[in-house]
Design goal:
heterodimer, A: 2 domains, 6-stranded parallel sheet, 15 helices, about 15% strand, globular, B: about 160 residues, mainly alpha, two-stranded antiparallel ribbon
């Protein structure tokens, strides 16, 4: 099959110089790599910046960013947000929605008729359309405009939204899918009957870096060893479990350990919990490098960028056994451990605290794994192969 | 913890083997009651959905719950950290406690009774369903053995293998 020359990438937002969702960051990075490799790449997104309001904050129009042509289109003004939220809540509660109700959910999700019109009119220009993440109305409608050339980048999670028949139909209709990990592809096969031969595991490249492992503790005045978490703080990410476990660990074992949390969201107030808010990229890497372990308590990840970054910093991971993607990364790399419940957590954290040699070796294995599997050359090779073969 | 077994091969650490070894030790300690701790039961509040598939953990969790279930309604030492008025305040607090005890004791003893009955009920359901599952598993194994004998293949080998 001839290699595609022109690619359109569809996502709800284009992340420009700011932190937005992992899926959009992933698509932007893939777009930049493809453009740097000589392909024509158009990134089609809405004018929204905020994923709560979806207000049109960026001006509509065309711009060029790092070799990628970015087209921004306004979000539809006729969204019925209360209806969307009602349908979304019903799905979340596990109710069975009629097909018409599922379509209403997607219709009143984030959409842009202007973007779809562009894709309809200019579709012939593009050899492939990459669209993601899966649960936005915009992505659903865009995928079905040119399904024969669309590759979903779903960032799929095992959640009620993924079990809606309309989502299954979308996966059946499109040409194929690019997945971030083997467990994600397996989940698509299990949940949606997706034929794995129509999918490829690509992921995202992690930049190689070196970080001073003592700089963060020195700068922040940390005297005790610490574990580190970075990301949104919410129930869905497992942060309440993390703070509970660390509290009980300290009480039961009498060991002095602090929990350092970067990112945003509510957090328990305790003397041993350090909320450092948003960190610069270099400080985040230093915090990772100096940690006893990077703890990622989320169950619903399709990739785990931040865990891979921690691996690159040489930090061993500590993740939940039920979080298939993160556990598989720990298993494959030999760079992390996974726990079913508190007793496992206590034993594993004690082990990592008490055996610095083991910790260093696991960290070294983790770093070598990321360089080998998630360095940009490896990811780009997988991406190009997927574009040619799917 | 003994880490001798954690060295798998010359090149590196086998994380799966480490986790397996830790699980074995932890499961033994759970069986010995080392984690029967009300604080653990409370910390697992956001992990229950994950634990429901772990047969062994249900027993452990109930054990923790048994420890956590009773509200302490006994008398306790009444103190006052403000030194200047301490004797007076302690006397006042003791008087308040003696007045309230009659009311709270009745309330909380009933609550403890309900909590205890609930845990006993859960334990009994868990025990019965575990017994039933064990009996069914034994029956399935027996039936598989007989089927294998009828089909002339070694027991344990799946049909059509």
């Amino acid at each position: 099959m001839a290699a595609p020359r022109s690619i359109a990438i569809v996502a709800p937002r284009y992340p420009e110089g700011e932190t937005v969702g992992g899926a959009e960051t992933l698509l932007r990075r893939l777009a930049e790599r493809l453009a740097a490799g000589g392909l024509e790449v158009a990134f089609l997104a809405t004018c929204a910046r905020d994923h709560f309001t979806w207000a049109n904050e960026w001006p509509a129009g065309r711009s060029e960013v790092r070799g990628v042509v970015v087209h921004r289109f306004p979000v539809n003004a006729d969204r019925n947000v209360p209806l969307f939220l009602a349908r979304q809540a019903a799905i979340d509660r596990g109710e069975t929605l009629s097909r018409a109700e599922q379509l209403e959910w997607l219709r009143h999700s984030v959409n842009s008729d202007a973007l779809l019109e562009h894709l309809r009119a200019e579709g012939a220009r593009y050899d492939r359309v990459l669209a993601g993440p899966y649960l936005f109305g915009l992505v659903y409608h865009a995928a079905l405009l040119h399904p024969e050339k669309t590759l979903l980048v779903p960032c799929l999670h095992d959640e009620p939204f993924a079990r809606q028949p309309v989502i299954r139909e979308m996966f059946e209709a499109v040409r194929g899918g690019l997945f971030n990990s083997e467990p994600e592809l397996e989940l698509a096969a299990r949940l949606l009957g997706f034929d794995p031969r129509r999918g490829a595991v690509v992921g995202m490249g992690i930049e190689e870096f070196e970080a001073d492992s003592s700089a963060f503790a020195r700068r922040r005045g940390l005297r005790a060893p610490y574990v580190f978490y970075c990301g949104r703080r919410e129930a869905g990410k497992g942060t309440p479990l993390l703070t509970d476990y660390v509290r009980v660990f300290r009480e039961r074992t009498g060991r002095e350990i602090e929990l350092v949390c970067a990112g945003s969201g509510p957090l328990d107030a305790a003397p041993y919990i350090r909320d450092v808010g948003f960190l610069s990229e270099s400080e985040k890497r230093e915090a990772m490098a100096g940690a006893v372990a990077f703890i990622h308590p989320s169950l619903l990840e399709s990739f785990g960028i931040v865990l891979l970054e921690a691996f690159m910093a040489g930090a061993p991971g500590l993740v939940r056994a039920g979080g298939t993607v993160l556990r598989r990364l720990c298993e494959r790399s030999g760079g992390g451990l996974w726990f079913r419940h508190y007793p496992d957590f206590e034993a594993e954290l004690m082990l990592l605290m008490d055996d610095p040699a083991l910790r260093r070796r696991m960290g070294a294995q983790a770093r070598a794994f990321v360089r080998r599997e998630y360095g940009w050359p490896a990811v780009e090779a997988r991406l190009r192969r997927a574009l040619e073969e799917l | 913890m003994n880490t001798d077994i954690l060295e798998i091969g010359a090149d590196g650490v086998d994380a799966a083997a480490v986790v397996e070894r830790i699980r074995k030790i932890v499961d033994e300690k759970i069986a010995a009651g080392a984690y029967a701790d009300a604080r653990i039961a409370a910390a697992e509040r956001t992990n229950l959905a994950q634990l429901k598939n772990d047969e062994q953990f249900a027993g452990f969790y109930l054990q923790c719950l048994r420890d956590a279930v009773y509200v302490d309604i006994s008398d306790f030492e009444i103190r006052e950290r403000r030194a200047r008025l301490a004797p007076l305040l302690v006397r006042l607090k003791k008087a308040i406690w003696s007045l309230l005890k009659f009311y709270t004791y009745r309330l909380w003893s009933q609550q403890n009774q309900v909590n205890g009955l609930l845990v006993t009920g859960l334990e009994s359901v868990d025990e019965k369903s575990s017994e039933k599952i064990r009996a069914l598993e034994a029956r399935v194994a027996e039936l598989e053995k007989r089927l294998a004998a009828l089909e002339g293949r070694p027991a344990g080998e799946p049909p059509g293998a």
